[in-house]
Amino acid sequence: MAKKMAAERAVEFVEDGMMVGLGTGSTAYWAIQRLGERVREGLKIQAVGTSERTEALAQAAQIPIVDFSRVAQLDVAIDGADEVSRDFALTKGGGGALLREKLVASAASRFIVIVDDTKLVRYLGKFPLPVEVVPFAWQLTKKRVEAAGCRSTLRMHEDQPFVTDNHNYILDCDFGEISDPASVHGYLKALPGVVETGLFINMAYVVVASDGQQVALHYPDAG
Ligand SMILES: O=C(CO)[C@H](O)[C@H](O)COP(=O)(O)O
Description:
With 223 residues, the protein is an alpha/beta fold. It has helices at residues 2-11, 26-40, 52-60, 98-106, 138-146, 181-189, and strands at 19-22, 46-49, 74-79, 83-84, 90-91, 108-116, 129-133, 151-154, 156-157, 160-161, 169-174, 194-197, 199-200, 206-210, 215-218. The protein is globular, with a radius of gyration of 17 Å. Ribulose-5-phosphate binds at residues 23-28, 79-82, 92-98, 101. Catalyzes the reversible conversion of ribose-5-phosphate to ribulose 5-phosphate.
């Protein structure tokens, strides 16, 4: 219920004529359902998805999907997160879609983050940080990632490495408390073989959080 409430409140940011980025996961699911209802009631929008799963859900909800390569700018993107720190850094990628999620969020004028309020934390780090890596020599990349001060696990799916929509692997990295997300991201991103990290820093326009009873809007700019 908390995820649904946050998602439905976020969809109120969407207006006629907008180009919308659609996130991935169980919270984004509710945003897609609500947006689909509004489209069927006459709202005119176009959307890009952050995963093949999301594109299929959007199409089933009758939301017009366009190819991201044909879009220069999005008005809003709505997506979930695994953790949101007090300074509005996010961990994302629990669903394995972090690369497309970051591309889509980075192209949006307003990136709206939707969470149940158990995901609001002081510091990131309880949720293992997903890092997308190329399959080639992933074992070497894993060692180099661990030199940043974490223990990492190759994400698996039914006894095989989990493969992202971009044909990469994911290392789930336990850093403990991440007090300086920017330096962790910078270090990891500079490693050959690392495609993207699940750290989203200074990207959120607003975090819409719910406890299942009420919805609160947290704006980074509010200080
Ligand atoms: O980053 C994500 C997928 O890659 C999701 O937004 C994140 O994992 C949150 O998922 P959920 O809304 O199911 O809790």
